[in-house]
Write a structure and sequence with these properties.
Number of strands: 8
Shape: globular
Structural class: alpha/beta
Radius of gyration: 19 Å
Distance between the termini: 53 Å
Strand content: 15-25%
Length: 260
């Protein structure tokens, strides 16, 4: 009798391999990791900034480790002279990273046409365009039709640069399922969505909820599903695992979150 829970150096739980558990699992053949260590000038916590040389070193290590995708640009602030200076450093570092990385795909987070232009200039192959889907604490008061139109405009601009397009579906774990279907289906019909990232922006979803959400989106959307799980409630890793078990094939790391 096969006992897959027993290996040479470990013994896991046989209950994990029960028929009742396995029948609900739909793991993809391959799961890719998108590392965001270099995102937003490395500011994973307030006051932490990476130099160009540090970014280059980290990118090289990630590439050597076999990380599939590396984020090279985030959503940099553009208000004060100091912040504008940081943006210049980030762009300069991104260009150096693009020349140094040999295997990983380069990805840039974007929310404006200018972000997309910079991504193309720096050598990214994909932009992940931010679009808030929930109407709970909406970043801007937009109708579903406006959300679709705004995303399509940016996606069209990205495609003009030859970039692959993904959506960072912010707030989707608090969005109405009807709104989710309406917005994503409308964009998908226009052929402007290569991947969609289900983002637990406020860190409020449970593992079971993430499994349901991934399954729901995959039911009507053919595009590959990414997930980005925040760790406000200590469930980031569990959410990522349950999302993968429902068929999510790309994970954006890190799953942790630090108050700024």
């Amino acid at each position: 009798m096969a006992q897959p829970w027993i290996k040479d150096q470990w013994y896991s739980s046989p209950h994990t391999f029960s028929t009742e558990v396995q029948q609900d699992l739909q793991f993809p053949n391959k799961v890719e990791l998108l590392d965001l260590s270099l995102d937003e000038n490395g500011e994973g916590m307030s006051g932490a900034h990476l130099t160009e040389d540090q970014k280059l070193t980290i990118a090289g290590l990630l590439d050597d480790l076999g990380v599939h995708r590396i984020g090279i640009l985030g959503y940099p602030p553009r208000v004060t002279p100091e912040e504008i200076g940081r943006l210049k450093i980030e762009v300069s570092a991104a260009k150096r990273v693009a020349k140094a990385v040999k295997k990983a795909k380069l990805v840039a987070l974007s929310s404006t046409r200018e972000d997309i232009d910079r991504a193309a200039e720096c050598g990214a192959g994909q932009v992940i365009i931010r679009q808030y889907l929930s109407h709970v604490q909406d970043i801007t008061a937009e109708s579903n039709a406006e959300k679709v139109a705004n995303f399509l405009a940016l996606a069209t601009h990205a495609r003009s640069h030859g970039l692959s397009v993904a959506m960072l579906a912010q707030g989707i774990t608090r969005a109405d399922v009807g709104d989710i279907r309406t917005i994503l289906s409308a964009i998908d019909r226009e052929g402007m969505l290569d991947e969609v990232c289900l983002t637990d922006t406020h860190g409020v979803c449970t593992p079971q909820g993430f499994h349901y959400l991934v399954s729901f989106v995959r039911h009507f959307l053919k595009s590959p599903v990414q997930v980005h799980c925040h760790n406000h409630l200590g469930l980031g890793v569990a959410n990522a695992c349950l999302a993968a078990s429902a068929g999510a094939s790309i994970g954006l790391l890190p799953v942790s979150w630090t108050p700024r």
